[in-house]
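Worked Example 4.2. Consider the chain below.
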Amino acid sequence: MGANIAALNNHESRQTELQKQWKAFKGSAAHEAMKQQRLETLLADPDNLWESIGPNAIKYPFPSSMLGKTELERKSIGIRINNFDNHLANQLATLIITKDDAELGRIIRDMSEQHLKDSVDEYVDDNWRDWL
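Applying the procedure from the previous section yields the following structure tokens:
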């Protein structure tokens, strides 16, 4: 039993140390550099790039999952999605017509970064100790 307690204490000690290291790493220049490097790696793949700026990359500012929803709820969500998509399309078209390259670029960059955020965060979570 004593070996089990020692192993548990050792594990808890390592976890506490890892949490301290993570707190020091998170938000640091190395953390930001790691996220940037992963984003660049993902965007170097043309499939990731096109996916990250296409219609599947749209993030809705409302719950858009239809899993477990009633037919009426799915219809309502579908209408909201359609309205949002149309609004975004009109906004992008206006920005192209008015040659507002800065705003158009900002929106496309935001879409791409948001779409790839989970992949970047997962990579950082799995590999951050390599950057210490």
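The helical segments are 2-25, 29-43, 46-53, 71-97, 101-127. Residues 29-131 form one domain. Compare this with Example 4.1 before moving on.
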